[in-house]
Fold:
Amino acid sequence: MVSNDRCLFCRIASGEITAKKVYEDADVVAFEDINPQAPTHVLIVPRKHIPSLDDLTDADAQVVGTVLTRAAQIARNLHLESDGYRLVINNGEAAGQTVFHIHFHILGGRNFGWPPG
Structure:
């Protein structure tokens, strides 16, 4: 695992900083967002430090696939599948990325409009 000691999400994944975790395995950590934008707002992060979508390589395809698979599993565990949920990834500051460690937001528990933002 490549680590960035300054990265907030790497520190949460390692247990150095506590978070309200909803799921954890060898590859992925999921925890409640501290600034929720919906009744259910969970962040899913790979343990591997990848700053943004722009930094992905073909070698990261399995990492991203694992995160997406776990996102669906976590949504089912949270009983979001019946009413629907939104899975979001922000890339870059203008898109709202504030922590530069790739992560997905699971948002549920309310209706969402389109287009977003």
